[in-house]
Write a sequence for this structure.
């Protein structure tokens, strides 16, 4: 194939229309698969899966949850934090921390 300005196939090739896209399987919501209707804020082990080591709540696109269950999980994490079952942040100690 030549890369000159003639011919329709070359234009489509250069614009990327003939490139193959990588196949990505859509993640299924764990709660939908297990038929979970409520998320218990007292089940800390289950909630830790949805929180990073820094203490941030993982977004939907990372977890693979549906919107309904992501809202339930987020509310449960916030409730567990209020009850001091989960930390708000991770304990950071080292040269950059403000602790002695």
């Amino acid at each position: 194939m030549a890369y000159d300005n003639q011919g329709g196939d070359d234009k489509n090739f250069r614009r990327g229309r003939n490139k193959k896209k990588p196949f990505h399987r859509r993640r299924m919501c764990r709660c939908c698969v297990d038929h979970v209707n409520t998320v218990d804020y007292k089940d800390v082990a289950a909630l830790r899966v949805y929180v990073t080591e820094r203490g941030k709540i993982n977004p939907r696109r990372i977890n693979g949850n549906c919107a309904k269950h992501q809202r339930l999980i987020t509310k449960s994490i916030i409730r567990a934090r209020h009850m001091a079952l989960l930390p708000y942040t991770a304990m950071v100690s080292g040269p950059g921390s403000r602790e002695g």
